[in-house]
Specification:
Mean pLDDT: 97
Oligomer: single chain
CATH class: Alpha Beta
Number of domains: 1
Radius of gyration: 14 Å
CATH architecture: Roll
Shape: globular
Low-confidence stretches: none
Strand order of the largest sheet: 1-2-4-5-6-3
Order of helices and strands: EEHHEEEE
Number of helices: 2
Helix content: 10-25%
Strand content: over 45%
Distance between the termini: 22 Å
Structural class: alpha+beta
Largest sheet: 6 strands, antiparallel
């Protein structure tokens, strides 16, 4: 879980099936020691994990990513320059007990990341 140490939600608003939040990024997190030394960049996998964690919080149950239809990394997030990002996620329940999520990370006019995918409960092992 990245919430609470890699990022902190400083503002969050829910309206129907949409969540808007501001995530404050921790530029001193150890992830940036390797990604990349001297020139930190928020890893794409961390952006996807933030989407997952926000979806779990919204739905109130454990979920896994079942399918990622769209993962677009449109601009680099340097946490030394961009200390916070706006996040908007839209949720749609599906008949097969999964949830469709579409959203993006942005700051002003810059869109950093777009996502469309499906989450569901973990499959039995």
């Amino acid at each position: 879980m990245l919430k609470g140490n890699f990022y902190t939600l400083t503002a969050q608003e829910t309206s129907g099936d949409t969540v808007q939040a501001v995530a404050l990024l921790n530029a001193s997190h150890s992830i940036f020691d390797g990604h990349f030394p001297g020139q930190p960049v928020v890893p794409g996998v961390c952006m996807l994990q933030i989407v997952k964690e926000m979806t779990i919080d919204f739905m109130g149950k454990d979920l896994v990513l079942r399918k990622a239809d769209t993962l677009k990394f449109l601009a680099v997030i340097d946490p030394l320059q961009t200390t916070s990002v706006g996040i908007q996620l839209n949720f749609t329940d599906r008949e097969d007990n999964t949830i469709r999520v579409a959203g993006f990370f942005s700051n002003g006019t810059t869109v950093y990341f777009k996502f469309k995918g499906t989450f569901g409960t973990p499959l039995p092992t």
